[in-house]
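Minutes, project check-in
Item: structure for the 82-residue chain
Input as provided by the requester:
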Amino acid sequence: MVTYVRTIPDEEATGELAELYALHRQASGKLSNITRVVSLNPELLRGAFHLRSAFRRGSPNVDARRREMIATVAAALLCCTY
């Protein structure tokens, strides 16, 4: 069974959603399907972007290299391709 999730394509995004899409592209270099999945709720997308930014900044106790190592191991354990 294939599940279909309605999203707003890049070229149809306007207003706050277009701004959020641009921020995500700037931060990641591309617009992921995970970002598009919440395109119908820009408030949620904005919150997810802030949460992601906070995770990327990390804590003073864990440097960027270690955060990437943790993310890589977690992704491998979860069989995650993202």
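Outcome recorded: The radius of gyration is 15 Å.
No further action items on this chain.
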